[in-house]
Amino acid sequence: MNKLNVLKVEFEFNGIIDVIYPVILRDDNDMILIDCGYPNFLTLIEESAIKNGIDLSKLTKLIITHHDFDHMGSAADFKRKYPNIKILSSIIDEKYISGKEKSLRLQQAESIDDKLAEEQRESSMNFQKTLKSVENIEVDILLNDGDKFDWCGGIEIIETPGHMPGHISIYVKESKILISGDALVIEDNKLSIANPHYTLDMKKARESIHKLLNYNIDKLVCYHGGIYTEEIKTSLKRIGF
Ligand SMILES: [Zn+2]
User: Fold this and answer.
1) Distance from the CA of 182 to the center of ligand 1, in angstroms?
2) What is the CATH number of the domain that holds 77?
């Protein structure tokens, strides 16, 4: 029994309805969650799992695609509630997830502080406060490019740096599904690269998309945007180089 569920986690932020799409992979031995929402999203994700008939008390692993606060925000809460789960990330992102080094997103926000107009300063300060509130967590298993595991019918780790240097995507071989984290997003029904403002290295981000052409992909799951199936190869060629 290998199953893949895309959770649709809806929430409201500043009066706007938004959605994120964490993924759950399952087989008889493992239940793996890929990315875990903003801080305080544990209950929302649990509720979404229940709607899909999934009991998260069987969770064995949490893979974090990168250390942005909407992807690792509730990791510490998950570990507290489900202490047996192993936390997995790339070697590069481990130091930011564990707090050994300051979050790159926070460094980015701080670095543009003095360039901001007065009216932008308050929202920037709030953003930095939110980033600082993210609880760090020890990573149990470090992931490398090309790592293959037999969990849930077989998955492969693909390093897809750019949005962040330690960003990874997960390829599910059996179903030819790529879970792309923030390497790709869906905007206006079109596959696209994540907001350049939040992509730390645009050249690398495009190279990462080009690299995905090496994989036979039938379906993409974007954390922001959900499932994408139309003309994947053509879209990847358009975005990557
Ligand atoms: Zn991100």
Assistant:
1) 5
2) 3.60.15.10
| Separation of CA 199 and ligand 1 centre (Å) | 8
Q: What are the angstrom distances between the C-alpha of 91 and each of 70, 178, 191, 223?
A: 19, 20, 28, 21
Compute, in angstroms, the gap from residue 1 CA to the centroid of ligand 1.
31
Number of domains in the chain: 1
Over residues 11-29, mean pLDDT? 95
pLDDT tens across 64-89, in order? 999 999 999 999 999 999 999 999 99
* Domain carrying residue 73: 3-240
Please state the pTM of the whole predicted model: 0.96
CA dist 203 and 89 (Å) reads 23
Q: Is the separation of the CB atoms in 182 and 170 below 8 Å?
A: no
Digit-coded pLDDT (tens) for 94-126: 999 999 999 999 999 999 877 888 888 888 899
Distance 70 CA to ligand 1 centre (A): 7
DSSP class of 63: E
